[in-house]
Amino acid sequence: MSLFHYNPSGFATITRLTTPKFYKTTLTCFLLLFTLVTTINAQDTDALLEKGMVKANLLFTPSINYEYNVYDDFTLKAEAGITPTLFNIFGTKKVAFFQKYEVQGKYYYNLKKRVSKGKSVSGNSGNFVAAVYNYQNKEALFSEARRSTDFSTLGGVWGFQRSYNSGLSLLFEIGFGYDFAYRSNGRDSNGRPFPLIGFELGWVIFKHN
Questions:
Q1: What b/e string do you get for 1-18 counting C-beta neighbours within 10 Å, with b at 16 or more?
Q2: How many domains does the chain have?
Q3: Are 142 and 48 in contact (CB under 8 A)?
Q4: Rounded to the nearest 5 degrees, what angle is found at the Cα of 130, between the Cα atoms of 125 and 134?
Q5: Does the pTM of the predicted model rise above 0.70?
Q6: Which one of 51, 103, 131, 145 has the minimum C-beta count within 10 Å?
Q7: Is the dihedral of CA 48, 54, 55, 61 positive or negative?
Q8: Strand pairing report for 5-7 and 74-89
Q9: Which domain holds residue 143?
Q10: What is the Cα 6 distance to its own chain's centre?
């Protein structure tokens, strides 16, 4: 997912719960959300997705990801890349780039419908819902800028992906999550709800089925 974040208060205004309990709770929530999605939507279908696919996204937030078909219409996607964050420092807006890592559990719900209409599902072309966990490092790349701590978001999205014979791949997703790294007016917070919007324009490097 390509996320663009805006922090109006500066680099040192983001915090995160860092106790072992936080990590355990975050992982448990992610697993429960993914299990809920797969349980509700599971059905007996012929596998129409690529067994594995590697894609590079070169615009907006450069990244590379691997999507693996775990069962029928379900995939796991792992991604690593760079994301920009806009900050307001002493009245001047600046952009810094941070490392980001993301894991998604995805369910494609309209593959059979696309096939019945003669539409391609190659390159995992279809609509989906997904559970998302996003982690960003506090140390900026290419500059000495830094945030006070790492950035962590857990949520769910709806989206679509379309891949073409040329190798071009387009993805859009939108949803809602919970930001575990947040301070309000300089005060520690337990987090906040956070909109998730992603857009990827990239190329399929490798796929196999």
A1: bbbebebeebbbbbbbbe
A2: 1
A3: no
A4: 115
A5: yes
A6: 51
A7: positive
A8: parallel
A9: 5-208
A10: 17
Q: Please give the Cα distance from 173 to 112 (Å, whole number).
A: 21
More confident residue, 186 or 117: 117
pLDDT at 187 over 60: no
Residue type, position 118, single letter? G
- We report the CATH number of the domain holding residue 171 as 2.40.160
Paired with 157 in beta bridges are: 130, 175
pLDDT in tens, 32-82: 555 555 554 444 445 689 999 999 998 777 899 999 999 889 999 999 998
Distance linking the first and last C-alpha atoms of the chain: 24
